[in-house]
Amino acid sequence: MSRIQCPRCLRPQSHCLCTLIPNLDSRTRVLLLQHPSEVNHALNTARLAALGLNNAELIVGEVFDDLPSLLNPPGYRARLLFPGDDAQPLQAYVPSDEPLLLVVPDGTWRKARKLLHLNPLLAALPRVTLAEGGVSRYRLRKAPGPGALSTVEAIVQALQTLEAPTSFEPLLRPFEALIEGQIAAMGEETFRRNHAEK
């Protein structure tokens, strides 16, 4: 028998995060392109980001046929939040007269690269990166490298850079509750044995 699911946050009703999800305005528009394999992931942080930001949209797929219109909303300059040799630091866009459309692929690094490969228009966007040295609070996953953040953490850091002094930290509340809940479910001893710093 399956558990009743919250239709908004997609968590089991007994672990609904909706009361923790903020309602934040941003000048920056955030477009999250989520690989289908992430939709049912227990820690779907892209969904949490999209729910907490009024100026955000989450689209699930591998090939996005309506990409030309999605990438050209009036009054915004589209930039892809993804590392690359020619990626500009986000600080280069502060201050800016024209707000950014921040396009964020969501999936494992491999799946995110696949989204770029399958959508040449996406891969052709100018790329932006976060400041180095970001430390993830994602204690359940070993980061593939320094500065590797979950999707919601990357969005928070990007918005904090672009829209300082406005704080987007409230977006991390449901994310942190999600992690605490997962740790509680597995038990502190199992968490320490498998995930705590060695």
Mean pLDDT: 88
Structural class assignment: alpha/beta
The biggest sheet amounts to:
6 strands, parallel
Number of strands: 6
Unreliable residue stretches: none
- So what's the CATH class? Alpha Beta
Q: What is the name of the CATH topology? A: Alpha/beta knot
Total DSSP helices: 7
Order of helices and strands: EHEHEEEHHEHHH
Structural shape: globular
Report strand %: 5-15%
- The name of the CATH architecture is 3-Layer(aba) Sandwich
Fraction of residues in H or I helices: 25-40%
Radius of gyration: 17 Å
Q: How many domains make up the coordinates? A: 1
State the separation between the terminal residues, measured CA to CA: 38 Å
Strand order within the widest beta sheet: 2-1-5-3-6-4
Description:
The protein has 198 residues and is an alpha/beta fold. It has a single domain (24-194), classed as Alpha/beta knot (3-Layer(aba) Sandwich), CATH 3.40.1280. The chain is built from seven helices and six strands. A six-stranded parallel β-sheet has the order 2-1-5-3-6-4. Helix 1 (45-52) links the parallel strand 1 and strand 2. It is globular, with a radius of gyration of 17 Å. The termini are far apart. The relative contact order is 0.18. It is an enzyme of class 2 (transferase).
Brief descriptors of the model:
tRNA-uridine aminocarboxypropyltransferase activity; alpha/beta; Alpha/beta knot; six-stranded parallel β-sheet; transferase; tRNA-uridine aminocarboxypropyltransferase; EC 2.5.1.25; 198 residues
